[in-house]
Amino acid sequence: MAAWSEEELRRISEADDLHVSPFREDGITYGTPTWVWCVVVGDAVYARAYNGKASRWYQAAVRQGAGRVTVAGMTKEVTFEPVDGPIQDHIDDAYRAKYRGSPYLAPMIGPRARAATVKIMPRDTTD
Q1: pLDDT at residue 115 tops 90
Q2: How much is the pLDDT for 96?
Q3: CA angle in degrees (0–180, nearest 5) for 66-68-73
Q4: Looking at per-residue confidence, does 72 or 127 come out higher?
Q5: What's the CA gap between 8 and 24, in Å, rounded?
Q6: Phi, psi of 64 (to 5 degrees)
Q7: Domain span including residue 46
Q8: Number of structural domains found in the chain
Q9: How high is the mean pLDDT of the chain?
Q10: DSSP code of 23?
Q11: What is the per-residue burial (b if ≥16 Cβ within 10 Å, else e) of 92-122?
Protein backbone atom coordinates (compact mmCIF):
# COMPACT_ATOMS: atom_id res chain seq x y z
CA MET A 1 0.00 0.00 0.00
CA ALA A 2 1.31 3.43 -0.92
CA ALA A 3 1.91 6.11 1.70
CA TRP A 4 2.62 9.83 1.77
CA SER A 5 6.23 10.76 2.49
CA GLU A 6 6.96 13.10 5.40
CA GLU A 7 7.96 15.79 2.91
CA GLU A 8 4.71 15.40 0.95
CA LEU A 9 2.67 15.62 4.16
CA ARG A 10 4.55 18.75 5.21
CA ARG A 11 3.96 20.41 1.83
CA ILE A 12 0.27 19.45 1.84
CA SER A 13 -0.23 20.68 5.40
CA GLU A 14 1.13 24.08 4.39
CA ALA A 15 -0.79 24.29 1.10
CA ASP A 16 -4.17 25.79 0.43
CA ASP A 17 -4.60 24.55 -3.12
CA LEU A 18 -5.81 20.92 -3.04
CA HIS A 19 -7.96 20.03 -6.05
CA VAL A 20 -9.77 16.68 -6.08
CA SER A 21 -10.68 14.89 -9.31
CA PRO A 22 -12.46 11.62 -8.55
CA PHE A 23 -12.99 9.31 -11.51
CA ARG A 24 -16.17 9.68 -13.53
CA GLU A 25 -18.55 6.75 -13.96
CA ASP A 26 -16.29 5.09 -16.55
CA GLY A 27 -13.56 4.68 -13.91
CA ILE A 28 -10.99 6.08 -16.37
CA THR A 29 -11.81 9.74 -16.98
CA TYR A 30 -11.05 12.23 -14.21
CA GLY A 31 -13.79 14.56 -13.07
CA THR A 32 -13.48 18.33 -13.07
CA PRO A 33 -10.93 19.43 -10.44
CA THR A 34 -12.66 20.87 -7.39
CA TRP A 35 -10.82 23.04 -4.88
CA VAL A 36 -11.30 21.81 -1.31
CA TRP A 37 -9.82 22.45 2.09
CA CYS A 38 -7.59 19.66 3.34
CA VAL A 39 -5.71 18.84 6.51
CA VAL A 40 -3.07 16.35 7.54
CA VAL A 41 -3.68 14.16 10.59
CA GLY A 42 -1.05 11.53 11.31
CA ASP A 43 0.04 9.92 8.04
CA ALA A 44 -3.08 10.78 6.05
CA VAL A 45 -4.72 13.67 4.24
CA TYR A 46 -8.38 14.44 4.90
CA ALA A 47 -10.84 16.64 3.05
CA ARG A 48 -14.43 17.64 3.69
CA ALA A 49 -17.19 18.72 1.37
CA TYR A 50 -18.51 22.13 2.41
CA ASN A 51 -21.97 21.24 1.10
CA GLY A 52 -21.95 17.84 2.79
CA LYS A 53 -22.89 14.53 1.21
CA ALA A 54 -24.80 16.29 -1.58
CA SER A 55 -21.51 17.60 -3.03
CA ARG A 56 -20.84 16.08 -6.43
CA TRP A 57 -17.14 15.59 -5.84
CA TYR A 58 -17.83 13.82 -2.55
CA GLN A 59 -20.41 11.51 -4.12
CA ALA A 60 -18.00 10.64 -6.96
CA ALA A 61 -15.10 10.12 -4.55
CA VAL A 62 -17.09 7.68 -2.40
CA ARG A 63 -18.67 5.90 -5.38
CA GLN A 64 -15.45 5.54 -7.41
CA GLY A 65 -13.01 5.29 -4.49
CA ALA A 66 -10.15 6.69 -6.56
CA GLY A 67 -8.97 9.55 -8.74
CA ARG A 68 -6.29 12.17 -8.50
CA VAL A 69 -5.39 15.23 -6.50
CA THR A 70 -3.25 18.21 -7.35
CA VAL A 71 -1.68 20.01 -4.40
CA ALA A 72 1.51 21.91 -3.58
CA GLY A 73 2.86 21.42 -7.10
CA MET A 74 2.25 17.66 -7.02
CA THR A 75 -0.22 15.53 -8.94
CA LYS A 76 -0.96 12.20 -7.27
CA GLU A 77 -3.13 9.21 -8.05
CA VAL A 78 -5.13 8.59 -4.87
CA THR A 79 -7.83 6.61 -3.13
CA PHE A 80 -10.79 8.14 -1.31
CA GLU A 81 -12.30 6.49 1.75
CA PRO A 82 -15.25 7.85 3.74
CA VAL A 83 -14.37 8.58 7.36
CA ASP A 84 -16.33 8.52 10.60
CA GLY A 85 -15.62 7.93 14.27
CA PRO A 86 -13.17 9.40 16.78
CA ILE A 87 -10.70 10.58 14.11
CA GLN A 88 -13.24 13.31 13.29
CA ASP A 89 -12.30 15.21 16.46
CA HIS A 90 -8.64 15.24 15.39
CA ILE A 91 -9.65 16.39 11.92
CA ASP A 92 -11.71 19.21 13.51
CA ASP A 93 -8.64 20.27 15.52
CA ALA A 94 -6.50 20.28 12.36
CA TYR A 95 -9.09 22.43 10.53
CA ARG A 96 -9.16 24.86 13.48
CA ALA A 97 -5.38 25.16 13.45
CA LYS A 98 -5.00 25.52 9.68
CA TYR A 99 -8.00 27.71 8.88
CA ARG A 100 -8.45 29.74 12.09
CA GLY A 101 -9.92 33.15 11.42
CA SER A 102 -11.78 32.06 8.29
CA PRO A 103 -15.54 32.73 8.16
CA TYR A 104 -15.88 29.26 6.57
CA LEU A 105 -14.32 27.38 9.49
CA ALA A 106 -17.54 26.89 11.50
CA PRO A 107 -19.38 25.14 8.63
CA MET A 108 -16.31 22.99 7.90
CA ILE A 109 -16.29 21.59 11.44
CA GLY A 110 -20.09 21.42 11.59
CA PRO A 111 -22.21 18.28 11.16
CA ARG A 112 -22.92 18.69 7.43
CA ALA A 113 -19.24 18.83 6.38
CA ARG A 114 -18.16 16.31 9.04
CA ALA A 115 -20.56 13.80 7.51
CA ALA A 116 -18.74 14.23 4.17
CA THR A 117 -15.14 13.58 5.21
CA VAL A 118 -12.79 11.48 3.11
CA LYS A 119 -9.36 10.09 3.78
CA ILE A 120 -7.05 10.63 0.81
CA MET A 121 -4.11 8.29 0.35
CA PRO A 122 -1.67 7.78 -2.55
CA ARG A 123 -2.61 4.94 -4.86
CA ASP A 124 -0.03 2.49 -6.15
CA THR A 125 -0.36 2.58 -9.92
CA THR A 126 2.28 -0.05 -10.73
CA ASP A 127 0.98 -3.33 -12.06
Answers
A1: yes
A2: 97
A3: 155
A4: 72
A5: 26
A6: -85, -30
A7: 6-122
A8: 1
A9: 95
A10: B
A11: bebbeebbeeeeebeebbeebbbbbbbbbbb
